């Protein structure tokens, strides 16, 4: 059997998170105007500053054009056909999980994210976002005792408005780009975390995003602030049902690492990628950025296996002297998936360091573009960057592209860039099979080996998850 | 009773016929050496037996352990006990050497209905077998063949063979690129694996290897056929005269039958 056939066979395993949950939803009709934003803000009982900010963002958005520079193709999005708010009907406040719709709890259970007390992951606090709203946050009390605030964005707006007002939009202003502006206008929920001075967050934090409702856009917003000397490790996971229309997911994540703080942000993205012919799937247009103050560290790790289109560049502004930025990425495109992803490392402070390790895997007719910017400003004396960009091709109908942008304005700064493209070889496969390893296992083993540098950056249990996910996503990959 | 029986085997790559009628019988416990000039088809024969798909068998039969070998794919042949020590072992970056080997061993054990070895038991087994070819533990933690020297790669092949315990080992130019010390180590490992229920086919260009791995039978290939078969002394004759004296040999001169039982 040729590798082509095996991969095709593997493909049939299919997307395993593609079911729909039957819950009653409180949904706004499709369409977007200032009234929709007002209703949304009122539904969430937001303070006036939030509504003002949303409206400003909306008005700015109206002046913007959708970007076209990215190397992805899709039909124009009709922003008036999207529902900007969908929330599962439930009692307004969920002090305990018993008030969460059991259907929703079952959904998370099916996805392997049990929210019930006794089954929770050891030492991982989870905020579960279902369609547009946060339905449950676990371990809130325990974290609160340590001084850590971890809650849904909506709760944070009500309970800690001073923190929101202080930090919201400081890393990704609403004027940043088309999708960030849209998100700023209509974001419905997300997660918020604040780790106070000198506190090491006692557990992993995690948000699990699930799109369920049809024709709904998911616009969540995450804001994470690590105060001086604080440290936190944060994880997000995402899935969606299989639907044959495209759904828009335009999120914004802002990270603030104050002096000496450390933030590790990991993503395992498994939105529905569409079927083998490219029908359906999520458009994942996300803006993620962190600002690193003096001596702090921000590390992004992402495993992107889902979505019809991925467009995201988790970035770090290395503002403070001696700050560190890292970006570790695995992006896999199979069938007709497209990914244009990478990072931006903006070195402003002296002795700033950044590391970029990007692993792109293209299979089927997938197109995978690494787009990365390394910028050393005039002030960035002795700054260093190391970039490694590897592409792996499975089959001959897919594509891999590497687009590095390097700008150095300080003569003492150093930038290193290494890139490689390889094809999964018949020789490698034969070597494995000659030892008795099946073709599927061999492909999955070789690809996992290729990604090892990135997987080892993930927290243990998620590294295992990511490996499994890669195996499933590789279905039909050598074409 | 033969473990391996090859009859009139023809194979091609693309449009080019490379094997043009190979006949060979190998009994358990025997070591056969196949020699011959470059391009004579030695490595192709090994590849065909191991199930490499770039080779297309156009004619002939191969029976292994009583079954039609050509009917099964590469992984099933491996599970049935065919092992190929590669001339050029490939690198698999990021895949741990031991993880790879344990996956292989357990796939083979599952196929035989045996229980899989857990990490601890496997580690013990690997340590024992590594001694055969003088591999140290740092080497075992590295990725499959990645950054290995030529000698290390070949030792790794023999190490894998020691762990997998095949019925038939095909050693494809295992001596190529080895200095004399490495050759001695590799040959020592191979000799330690000689067993009454295991056959080996040692493919080599040079008779040097046969000073260390002493074969029961020697065959000489030229232009896709076995043109001479004999005992140990045939290798020495080749060493002395080179391959050129075989130049005029045709089909009729094949002494392949001598190798039959």
TrEMBL record, chain A:
Entry's transmembrane regions: none
GO biological process, one term: iron-sulfur cluster assembly
Designated name of the protein: Fe-S cluster assembly protein SufB
NCBIfam families membership: PRK11814.1, sufB
Gene: sufB
Chain ranges of the SUF system FeS cluster assembly SufBD core domain: 209-450
Matching InterPro entries: Fe-S_cluster_assembly_SufBD, SUF_FeS_clus_asmbl_SufB, SUF_FeS_clus_asmbl_SufBD_core, SUF_FeS_clus_asmbl_SufBD_sf, SufBD_N
Family: Belongs to the iron-sulfur cluster assembly SufBD family.
Domain SUF system FeS cluster assembly SufBD N-terminal: 141-201
One family name in Pfam for this protein: SUFBD_core
Automatic annotation (TrEMBL), chain B:
Keywords, alphabetical: ATP-binding, Nucleotide-binding
Superkingdom in the source lineage: Bacteria
One family name in Pfam for this protein: ABC_tran
Transcription keyword on record: no
Annotated GO MF terms: ATP binding; ATP hydrolysis activity
Domain (ABC transporter) ranges: 4-248
Family from the record: Belongs to the ABC transporter superfamily. Ycf16 family.
PANTHER family: ABC TRANSPORTER I FAMILY MEMBER 6, CHLOROPLASTIC (PTHR43204)
Name the UniProt record assigns to this protein: Fe-S cluster assembly ATPase SufC
